[in-house]
Structure formats: structure tokens, C-alpha cells
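User: Hi! I'm working on a homework problem where we have to compare a predicted structure to a textbook description. Could you give me the structure for the chain below?
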Amino acid sequence: MNPNNKILILGIGNYLMGDEGIGVQIAEKMIHEDLPKGVDVLDGGTGGFHLLEYFEQYPNVILIDATLDENPPGTIRLIKPKFAKDFPQAMSTHDIGLKDMVSALQLLGTMPNINLFVVSIESIQQQGIELTPNIEAVTPLIIDQVKALMFKLLTPEKVVN
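Assistant: Happy to help. Predicted C-alpha cells:
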């Protein structure tokens, strides 16, 4: 296994706040899947600097997180943030921690290849682990998209002359 192909699938969110926890719910589902060697899954909770070491250990990080934006609930978008400013403006409750961590990675020169799946949610429920029907319905789609990207990252591109 090429160490440059190591991948971390990292779900971010608060499990106890309904749809805001979609990232950690996806991580919890994927932890039980039979994934290829070199692919690890982590429930990153609400993010923050305690995750910095993981971003330094993996050259490829696939993040899954909720976002409050103007898109219909359940909209899935893939973003390739290179700078803190590239994260959506309306990230959910842990917005500052992720942006600060990305800034720190840039300063340290240890920024991995980050792919961020954001899932649009309508609101942050104050309590409850249940996902709303719109978000529950897209859960298999998110997992499929994460897996498709994971396999793409694991497969070295062939150079055509």
C-alpha cells in the first residue's frame, strides 16, 4: 500500500443535535463497512484542534458535515477547500474550529488533500439523535459518493503519453 494513498473518512457534527450530526452518523455507519486497507473512518465529533494530528497523518481526508445554506435540505455538494475561506460561509455549530485547524495546517505546511461533502440542512435541532426524513433519505447517497471518491483516490491515475 502506497502511504500516499492513505485515506481518513472523517464525519463531523454533534450526534445529539439531529441533522447537524449527519457527518458523525455517516461515520458510524461506515465504521462497520468492509473498507480497503489504508482507509480509516473516524467520528470527529464537533471538530477542533484535537483532530489536527489526524490531518497530519493522512495525505487524503474526506470530510462529511452539515451546513446551513440556502439549498434544499438533503442537497449534497463536494467542495475541495484549500484555504479556510473555501469552507462554506454557513457551516454549522463547529465552523470556527475547522477553519482554524485548516489555517494551522497551512502554517505548519502539513495540509492534506481535503474533500468536503456538505449536506444542506434546514435547521439545527436542539436535542435528538433522529435525522429528519429529507436527511435520512440521502444517507445512502452520501455513503455511495464517499465510497466512489475513496476508490478514485485509491486508484493511481495512469499517465498517458
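For your comparison, note the following. The domain at 9-151 is CATH 3.40.50.1450 (Rossmann fold). The mean pLDDT is 84. Good luck with the assignment!
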